[in-house]
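Q: Sequence in, structure out?
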Amino acid sequence: MTPLPWLLVALVVACTAPAPRVRAEVVFVCEHGAAKSVVAMAYFNKLAAERGLDVRAVARGADPQDKPSTSATEGLRSDGLQPSLDPPRPLMAAEIRSSARVIAFDCNQAAMKALKGMDACWDDVPATSDSYARAREIIRAHVSAVVDDLVAHGSSSPSP
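A: Exactly. Output:
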């Protein structure tokens, strides 16, 4: 038998197989994309994985700084989580359109005012450099509520 029939079968299977499910994103945005959004992303991804959600979070900044915050990365490490060491990235319009949720921090700051109308704005979180433990506890409580809501609504993909 020539290899051609097997190639055709492989192509037919590849073309008719369902597309892999795309994981929806939750976007956390803080002013510099280096601290609060990074902590929120780490805890969201941990809780979502533990709850079996097919959703992941990313951290973005309205005015990104060059590198992640030392207080956030050291705090996450001490919590047993692996912080992202990637440079903070800016929030893109496509991410707003395609995400399941966009959650901003400190919407009264000049750089953040445009995000006031997003899904949520968490203005009650102190700077991680002032009190990482306090910031983490407030972020973790907020993130837990978001995960609970996604589980309750079976929502792991963006709304149309």
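Confidence is low (pLDDT under 50) at residues 1-22, 156-160.
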